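RECORD TYPE: inverse folding
INPUT: structure tokens
STRUCTURE:
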């Protein structure tokens, strides 16, 4: 994140609190471009979590939820 703030906005986190506020830095982090390292890492983490959730589905439970008779899945 530090590298992204430096690259995208020219901010040096060492100067936070004197040159800019934590709130200002947080607002800029929220608006980092999708091509930033931070955004890429967050997207990869979101994809990993989504995959874990997909793998966590019980087939029998899914069949019941979809109204598929037992033994037909």
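DESIGNED SEQUENCE:
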């Amino acid at each position: 994140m530090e590298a992204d703030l430096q690259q995208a906005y020219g901010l040096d986190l060492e100067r936070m609190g004197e040159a800019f506020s934590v709130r200002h830095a947080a607002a800029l982090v929220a608006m980092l471009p999708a091509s930033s390292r931070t955004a890429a890492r967050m997207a990869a983490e979101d994809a990993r979590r989504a995959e874990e959730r997909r793998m966590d589905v019980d087939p029998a439970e899914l069949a019941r939820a979809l109204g598929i008779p037992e033994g037909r899945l």
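NOTES: The longest helix spans residues 37-55.
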